[in-house]
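Ticket #384: bound-state structure for pyridoxal-5'-phosphate.
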Amino acid sequence: MEKCKIQNFIDFTRSVYSTKEIIPLHEPRFLGNEKKYLTDCIDSTFVSSIGEYVNKFELIMSDLSKTKRAIAVVNGTSALQVSLKLAGVKNNDEVITQALTFVATPNAITYLNAHPIFLDVDLHTMGLSPQALSDFLNEYAELRDDGAYNKKTKRKISACIPMHTFGFMCEMHKIIQICGSWKIPVVEDAAEALGSEFKSQPSGSMGLLSAFSFNGNKILTSGGGGAITTNVSSLGQKAKHLTTTAKINHKWEYKHDQVGYNFRMPNINAALLCAQFENLDKFIKSKEKLYNNYKSYFKSSDLNIVEIPKNTTKWNYWLISLILENKEQREEFLKTTNDSGVMTRPIWKLMYKLPMYEKCFRDKQENAEYLEQRVVNIPSSSTI
Ligand SMILES: *Cc1c(COP(=O)(O)O)cnc(C)c1O
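RESOLUTION: The complex was predicted; output attached.
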């Protein structure tokens, strides 16, 4: 690839963000009531595990995701872990997910002493492939009264986690239909997809339970934080109980009825997040403009921007990406841009290439391997 093509991209990105400083991949923006709510939270002294901002955030979140219940938790990984547990994942079970994901997805499975099964993704969504899912189940699974079992390993297949890469939606209707016919609960990893919709259904509303993240690099941040959403009220109640040390409500007594977790989101983080939510639409609009700006730029360069999949009826524009010709072009692009202070990043290494997941089951991974070698993220922070 000619050096000047990359240099042009660097110059263009610098003009978009009008800065000579380092351009991060995705940085948070605090434009509204953040300081006001934080000050209010400090003045109230309720900065820790209970408080009005936590309650307020949970209502905002269930409203936005059109679910019966949202539970604030300490991060997205713990949201996944608890969602899997409540979906029924037990010791030595298997959980299906994609190999092209962030490491938190298989880690959450592993925390429950279950085994990840890594399947391929679709090229257009970069999320779990329904074809790979049904191929795997048809070959390996057997349906019993209490669910699906892997005929080879004799283990129960107790959940499936589709992950919405960069905010693009997986083919949810097919995944839910296939999993339904095998009695496998679906847990959405919607960590990257806050504000995205699949055929007008919000991310996090289609799984039995879903997990969101509000880490610093996500579209909205609470510093660190996460949420579980569900349309089953009883599961919502259990999620709240389990993530708050399983304490029975009582004015003064310490009664806990199981081994719970301290996975609560502190009120001070929720205060920051409540302010962030007031600007979600503004962020998405600004990022949409950024995407269209990049898109028209790349039309005249011969670098290819990754298009929005048609099934994603609303995209949150979280991370914008390019798909390069091959691994060599990718290396050159990453090196030149990062050397010039324009942050770009490769898509994740496939999970079975990490030492702790080397021995896990995986299918052919044709699409995941293709994408792994070619996809890079480019600066995607909102420009306001
Ligand atoms: C960010 C992220 C998580 C985990 O979120 P944390 O809040 O960092 O624990 C999980 N899955 C995916 C796909 C993510 O991008």
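RESOLUTION NOTES: The mean pLDDT is 97.
TICKET STATUS: resolved
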